[in-house]
Design a protein that fits this description.
homodimer; alpha/beta; Rossmann fold; N-(1-d-carboxylethyl)-l-norvaline Dehydrogenase, domain 2; eight-stranded mixed sheet; 13 helices; about 45% helix; about 10% strand
């Protein structure tokens, strides 16, 4: 399968080779982008390189490579020299969630890049409107938020800061579409962005219901796996309402919105779980308990499921009426 | 493939041959249960029979039948005689969501069945605690809420009324497990049950965000399809938190719960859509617009997706650590 690798014109810079940085780099390499990676932390270069290689092998396993892994790797340079970012079309920062450190990094990036380079942060914790103040041209600054594993998720949130201009937003949307993503644009950098914020609304309500004794954690999980899970990937939220018929929803809203939890606080049960230093599968303690083997099985299952749902979703594209794939 | 049909000992009665009733009947036949169907409405018998046949042919297409459709059909009797329910282990009411009519029907069912027969309603609108007052033995009365298509969804909500006893709940759970369902038990019949209620929390928040201009209906759909959709069927809600690591969630809760919408009312945009007599794909007007062909394509896609996600979910069972299926 040599020689099938189509190399993209745009070089992309990634600063930070942590979990997300490495995952994003691998996904961009898999798409044929030359990538200039900057590893600001000592020792990060080697660990990051290993992670990127692992992700590329996963890409191979997912059947999304057209050439051997080595050819993709040859598109990558890793250094600690910010000057290497000079010719990048886009530079994405993926470092630790610390405002002061990010500001320093963005000042360095802004110094070495041209005014045409798009500057982006993968942050999910610091508002873009604040971050973009660190650079002299905030209009070319934007948030681009990947989900992991970056190569296998169609989800990509694009977050506009107060000063981000329309040209930058449009350019990033165009790039995202060329990557096979289904980008969602957030016009204001609200906390939690969209999906996470909507899931917080779910957490608030379910913690309240479990606290009242109406149901259990395990039963709530089953509900979402087998009910919401049975249409989510196909339809999302509003399409689902269209499909079910809007009238009933309207009545149900009026009846149920006033009953929902408006709590600001965390339920006692959740507090207890956190107080017990539960870190989920990482230390085997969470809403469920895990042996080391079970934790590993969940990781393997998640990887396998990612592949399955990635390929399944490909059969049901967003623009269903423009294709015949969704009607097999 | 003759002779492979294993017939269950328990006969189940279904009252009402509407969309849900027919779907439930087909799923029970596909599981090998003899079914006594009561069609109280004139003309329902013929339409219901046709629907059941259609659903059984879908079961065949989904590769879940062990014998020809005709053999399954032979397990079904349809009549308007409540006396036929006499020997049923369980009778499920699936008629119109009208309290007075349901009360009359349950009185008739209670008269002809033994005290050991479990009485159930598929209602999603009327509290079980109210319905169960219609019968002399409310402890054997319970809610069983299927999702459509009943044969292809593992989701099943079991709703206890105030007077439902533990024996009845346990018996229905056991039945549900024998049907290959992943039942969730609701200890109190709260409005909207679990999944719907949690989705209402999502609707409240997203309608608020769209109203503020932070995002659009279409972008919210993409978020849920490609982010939530990429783990929902595998993990549900709490398992997902365990997987991601609980500490970050805790901090995020504290920050974001106070920002969430606490609105009782419906957003202006939603109000406008409803005022325009939008009924979604049924009349081509909703959050999106649909030609007749597009509406048909969505129906076909939903049916195909049901099959795909049904088989996909089978590879990732609830009790992942007890199997090797989830770790392929």
């Amino acid at each position: 399968m040599n020689g099938n690798l189509k190399i993209q014109d745009n070089t992309i810079g990634i600063v930070g080779l942590g979990l997300m940085g490495s995952s994003i780099i691998a996904s961009l390499l898999a798409l044929g982008h030359p990538v200039k990676a900057i590893a600001p932390i000592h020792g990060e270069k080697e660990i990051g390189y290993k992670r990127i290689l692992e992700q590329l092998h996963l890409c191979e396993k997912f059947d999304i490579l057209q050439a051997p892994v080595e050819e993709y790797l040859s598109l990558l340079t890793v250094s600690s020299e910010y000057n290497d970012l000079e010719d990048c079309h886009l530079v994405v920062e993926c470092i630790v969630e610390n405002l002061a450190i990010k500001e320093t990094v963005f000042k360095k990036i802004a110094e070495v890049t041209s005014k045409r380079t798009i500057l982006a942060s993968n942050t999910s914790a610091i508002p873009i409107s604040i971050l973009q103040k660190a650079v002299p041209d905030p209009q070319r600054f934007i948030g681009i938020h990947w989900a992991e594993p970056a190569f296998a998720t169609r989800f990509l949130e694009i977050i506009c800061g107060k000063e981000t201009d329309e040209e930058t937003t449009a350019a990033v949307c165009k790039l995202a579409l060329s990557w096979g993503k289904e980008p969602t644009v957030l016009r204001r950098d609200i906390r939690g962005f969209i999906t996470n914020r909507l899931m917080y609304a779910v957490y608030r309500e379910i913690l309240h219901l479990v606290e009242k004794g109406d149901t259990s954690f395990a039963d709530a999980d089953k509900c979402f796996r087998y009910d919401a899970g049975s249409w989510m990937t196909l339809m999302g939220i509003f399409r689902r309402m269209d499909y079910e018929g809007l009238k009933d929803y309207y009545t149900a809203y009026s009846n149920i919105f006033p009953l929902l939890s408006n709590s600001d606080g965390i339920s006692l049960q959740m507090q207890k779980i956190v107080d017990a230093h539960s870190r989920g599968i990482q230390n085997g303690k969470g809403f469920y308990s895990y042996t080391r083997q079970e934790a590993m099985q969940w990781s393997q299952a998640f990887s396998a499921f990612n592949k399955d749902i990635f390929h399944l979703a490909a059969n049901y594209p967003e623009r269903i009426s423009e294709t015949s794939n969704g009607t097999k």
